[in-house]
Amino acid sequence: MFTPDSIEVQGERFTPFITQEQISTRISFMGKQLDKDFANLNPIFIGVLNGSFIFLADLMRHVEIPCEVDFVKLSSYGDKKVSSGNVTTLKKVDARLEGRHIILVEDIVDTGLSMNYMLDEMRTHNPASLSVVTLLHKKEATVHPVDLAYVGFEIPNAFVLGYGLDYAQHGRNLGQIYIVENKK
Q: Looking at the domain 7-180, which fold is it?
């Protein structure tokens, strides 16, 4: 597993913030919660690409209930550290969602813009239920409130990468989460 002491991406230095062990422990706990809450419901987990793919894969290894998986891809950041404020769908879900128990899986919720966009889109399919699982939540950055049923870690309003999260498509392969160093 690739977990360097620090890494430079786009001219900025990042240092470890949440270790692989902390992530693994929290995901195991979240999997148990989902097993309990969705027993006998055959939910469909919908991963929001690209950032959620590692989190979703690890989460699925901790879920024991019968379930399905699909993906959606959104764009609001491009290669920037700040959202453009415009969300577009690049890939839609393939599965039929009407009457299903949908669990949206996201790597990080910060402003809430993308997740609100996704929730509005999912509601048009008339699901039986709709829940959000996110590995990270930047609560102080939230402008558009979102009901997050399952949160791995609340983090400060700082830029992070690793474990699926990127900066201009770099850093996704890091085995833990890194935070940008403050420039002095």
A: Rossmann fold (3.40.50)
